[in-house]
Amino acid sequence: MRTQTYDTHKLQTLLKRRKIATMDELKDALGTKSNITVSRKLNELACYSSYSHRSSYYTLDEIAHFDERGLWQCRSIYFSKP
Q: Cα angle at 25 between 19 and 23, to 5 degrees?
C-alpha cells in the first residue's frame, strides 16, 4: 500500500488567509486526523506556536510582525520569537 503524502502548501494557504489557525483547522486543511502528520508538515515551514492559549494556535514567520521585545499579538493570541 502506498503511503499518502500531504502538501505543506495547503497549510501555507490556510495560514496566509487566516493569519493563525488551530491544530484542528490545520488537520482539516491537510485532510488528516493525525496531529503528528500536521506537526511534521509544520516542521518543514518556518512557523510559531502561541505562548498563550496552551500553544494551540500556529502562524508562519512571514505573517508574524514581532515587536522589539520579540512579541506579536493577533486576535488576543500571543506569540513570541525565540
A: 95
Beta bridge partners of 42: none
The Cα 49–Cα 59 span in angstroms is 7
Q: What is the DSSP string of 30-48?
A: HT---HHHHHHHHHTS-EE
CB 48 within 8 A of CB 68: no
Contacts of 25 (CB under 8 A, 6+ apart): 14, 18
Q: What is the pLDDT of residues 11-24, one digit of tens each?
A: 999 999 999 999 99
Task: Read off φ and ψ for residue 47, nearest 5 degrees.
Answer: -140, 165
Nearest-angstrom CA–CA distance, 67 and 81: 9
Give pTM, 2 decimals. Answer: 0.90
Q: What is the pLDDT of residues 55-79, one digit of tens each?
A: 999 999 999 999 999 999 999 999 9
